[in-house]
């Protein structure tokens, strides 16, 4: 019996040399699509990253009972999905590197469940090809020069806020005028939060209704740049729950921009203080502004000076 030169016989289980053993449907002519998929390596990296983060957590880390013996270390996929509030199939596909859409909210839930730190969270967003959600600047993001400017503005009260009205920095006159806000802890160290949640007797604004409406409109104008961000939506949700007045004003969808306005404050120790507030956007960090309060009369100026000279007279309660 003769045999053709240059041919060999292979069993059905032996793959062709140099090629992976793949299903018939995925081979050329087998009905599958084997064209390279853009982002394939990124998806593979995403899958490996998620598996590694899941493997490092134990059930006890997330408050789950240990259960039966586990074949692999870490949480199961269905446990991650349950804790993150997503479908098991969807999370499985995400961890397998399949090309599925992942929203900011869902990725943020997965990041919280897997206990990702800031660097890991940013890495997750890049691998998932989702625009990175940058947190609002905090106190540590301000340059030293900003604190120096605030100090040199004395005796004018001045402070730095971000778009959400978080208080980031202030000078001594500002602390004398608003001691409750300066002493507050998050979320209390937030001007709009205190304006809507502090007792009426302690609200510093004489025209509280107008000031609240203006603050909500300014917050709404900044909110549009953070649509879909969990931290912003959570802030609005919590404040709406704490204050029906805020919820009603928020539903009006009014918008406004920070600017120069006259404000009248009622301080519990020295009485009425009239000042012109001037809001100036800072170049860095983004979405921050410095607000300077200039007394509109000598009586108001004298009352601020007296508060600075008598720190023991400042009230312990809010404002």
TrEMBL record:
SUPFAM superfamilies: lambda repressor-like DNA-binding domains. Pfam families: HTH_31, MLTR_LBD. Residues 1-43 are annotated as: Disordered. Residues 1-13 have a biased composition (Basic and acidic residues). GO terms for molecular function: DNA binding. Residues 49-121 form the HTH cro/C1-type domain. Coiled coil: none annotated. SMART domains: HTH_XRE. CDD domains: HTH_XRE (cd00093). Gene3D superfamilies: 3.30.450.180, lambda repressor-like DNA-binding domains. It comes from the Bacteria. PANTHER family: BLL4672 PROTEIN, BLL4672 PROTEIN-RELATED. This is Transcriptional regulator with XRE-family HTH domain. It comes from Sphaerisporangium krabiense. The lineage of its organism: Bacteria, Bacillati, Actinomycetota, Actinomycetes, Streptosporangiales.
């Amino acid at each position: 019996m003769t045999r053709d030169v240059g041919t060999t016989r292979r069993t059905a289980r032996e793959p062709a040399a140099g090629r992976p053993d793949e299903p018939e449907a995925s081979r050329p002519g087998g009905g599958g699509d084997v064209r390279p998929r853009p982002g394939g390596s990124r998806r593979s990296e995403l899958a490996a990253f998620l598996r590694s983060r899941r493997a490092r957590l134990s059930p006890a880390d997330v408050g789950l009972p240990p259960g039966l013996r586990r074949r692999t270390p870490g949480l199961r996929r269905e446990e991650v999905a349950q804790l993150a509030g997503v479908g098991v199939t969807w999370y499985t596909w995400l961890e397998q590197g399949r090309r599925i859409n992942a929203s900011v909210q869902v990725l943020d839930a997965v990041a919280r469940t897997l206990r990702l730190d800031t660097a890991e969270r940013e890495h997750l967003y890049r691998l998932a090809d989702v625009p990175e959600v940058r947190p609002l600047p905090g106190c540590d993001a301000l340059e030293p020069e900003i604190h120096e400017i605030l100090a040199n503005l004395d005796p004018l009260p001045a402070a730095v806020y971000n778009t959400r009205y978080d208080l980031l920095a202030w000078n001594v006159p500002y602390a004398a005028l608003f001691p409750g806000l300066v002493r507050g802890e998050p979320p209390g160290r937030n001007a709009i939060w205190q304006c809507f949640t502090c007792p009426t007797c302690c609200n510093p604004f004489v025209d509280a209704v107008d000031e609240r409406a203006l603050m909500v409109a300014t917050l709404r104008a900044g909110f549009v740049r953070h649509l879909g961000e969990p931290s912003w939506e959570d802030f609005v949700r919590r404040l709406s729950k704490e204050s029906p007045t805020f919820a009603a004003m928020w539903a009006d969808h009014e918008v406004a921009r920070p600017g120069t306005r006259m404000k009248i404050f009622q301080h519990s120790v020295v009485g009425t203080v009239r000042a012109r507030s001037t809001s100036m956007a800072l170049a860095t960090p983004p979405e921050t502004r410095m607000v300077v309060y200039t007394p509109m009369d000598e009586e108001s100026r004298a009352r601020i000076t007296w508060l600075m000279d008598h720190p023991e007279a400042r009230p312990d309660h809010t404002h």
